[in-house]
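Feature request, filed as a ticket because there's no other form

It would be nice if the structure record came with a short human-readable summary line next to the tokens. Right now we just get the raw output. Example of a typical job, pasted below so the devs can see what we mean:
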Amino acid sequence: MKRYIIFIAIAGLFLHCKQTKELRKTDYQLVWADEFEMDGLPNANKWSYDIGTACEKPAGCGWGNKELQYYTDKRTENARVENGHLIIEAHQEPYKEDRTYTSARLTSKNKGDWTYGKMEIRAKLPTGRGTWPAIWMLHTADVYGGWPESGEIDIMEHVGYEPDTIYGTVHTKSYNGMIGTEKGRGVYSPLSEKQFQVYTIEWNEEKIDWLINDEKYHTFLNDETNFKGWPFDHAFHLILNLAVGGNWAGRHGVDESIWPQRMEIDYVRVYQQQTIAD
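Raw output as currently delivered:
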């Protein structure tokens, strides 16, 4: 009888190991990309626009940070593809709602949305005091509530008065900039305004890693408590924008002699691991 029980136990363990082996994740596979190969307006099948000012909504400043620009819609002066690059360009000019700067904010919402993956963007940044380029991700649905409950992932942020620093950050209910608890890190990167660099996150169930040119510089771990610390288990989309001034980039004023300024993006690539059977 004992031998029979031992046999059953060993057989069960073998079956468990076999089942575990049958399902595994492959290396990253490309699932979405924009190589910006056709001149003109950005590809409407992949990008939409957030439009307006930082303070146009009835309650406070809406989705802005007291920035100075007006985000325009389908205006090549502010967002266009040329010579294989996406150009997001901020201009100093009179515009709607008494704004004196224009720019663009592109979003892949409902056109490119992912839970987990490797997001890789090759970009060259603007220069000068008052510039605030960002490559980031927001929740596509308010799974846990509005910002910051459902999360934000900042793949790359840069402010012009710190020309040699790149930031990678997350914002959640427990960790966010409104209460000074955001989880992020700045890294020395003196070439970001002079040449193209690759900004990457690798995001899975356990952590988010930030990399520049394949060199990791920051990690945010899933503390496995609740959504307040880790809301990153649902779909997010990409946002590309160039802001002017605001709470952070305008901390030391805005240099009015530098405009126009541009962020150039060579490509956006999204990879995911595929689960397959052995």
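Something like this underneath would help us a lot:
The chain has one domain: 26-277.
The chain is about 10% helix and 45% strand.
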